[in-house]
Amino acid sequence: MAQKPLFRFGATDSLATLLERNEKWANRVSSVRPSLFPTNAQGQAPKILWIGCSDSRAGEGCLDLLPGEVFVHRNIANLLPDSDFSSLSVIQFAVQVLKVRHIIVCGHYDCGGVWSSLTSKKLGIIDHWLRPIRDTKVRHKAMLDAIEDPKDKCARLVELNVCAQVNNLKRNTVIIEAQGERDLQIHGVVYDPGSGLLKEIMVPEDEYAEDYFVSDAGELVH
């Protein structure tokens, strides 16, 4: 018997469709893991913080884990600027309260935010948000200019952006303190929407690390 194709939410579908599918999903999961939802009702204890892009194709679902296993923060182009209180709050809660053991920064190929950063087209308020990617582009101008194919250039900038955000994490005082106390691992990965696969990115040593240090008061100074 042919396998039933995966559902795609269409223009004629409604919230009722989603609620019906939710009920079927909850019943299906409960039949396989009867203790999952009662356990989740008591609180959360995830070991992973996932920091990814808001792109609908590139969520933490690719890890194939159950509800309660991954604490999640997503925004356009998976950025972690030191002025963003949303991501800073997520990081602090995940590290200091939930005591996660792994932080995964996940970019993805064909990222709209990265594509936009490769052009001079004005998009409005999002231009301010994407400024860190444009800065990364400038820092690696020679490398990127040597890549002729636009798709390959975008892919390389996606990887460079992941490296930059991993280094941003490593400069975070919450991260620095936690790594001094326990085994907290930070990973950079890129998701391929065309295959569904993740690829680990080897992040080079932070060339700007010497510009940052922690004061006696525990504050990050640069």
Automatic annotation (TrEMBL):
EC number, UniProt record: 4.2.1.1
Any one Pfam family match given in the protein's UniProt record, by short name: Pro_CA
Essential cofactor(s): Zn(2+)
Listed GO MF terms: carbonate dehydratase activity; zinc ion binding
Keyword set includes Transmembrane helix: no
GO cellular component terms attached to this protein's record: cytoplasm; mitochondrial intermembrane space
Reactions catalysed, as given in the entry: hydrogencarbonate + H(+) = CO2 + H2O
Protein keywords: Lyase, Metal-binding, Zinc
GO process annotations (BP): carbon utilization; cellular response to carbon dioxide; cellular response to oxidative stress
Binding locations of Zn(2+): 53, 55, 108, 111
Cofactor note: Binds 1 zinc ion per subunit.
Family per record: Belongs to the beta-class carbonic anhydrase family.
Task performed by this protein: Reversible hydration of carbon dioxide.
Protein name according to UniProt: Carbonic anhydrase
Natural source organism: Yarrowia lipolytica (strain CLIB 122 / E 150)
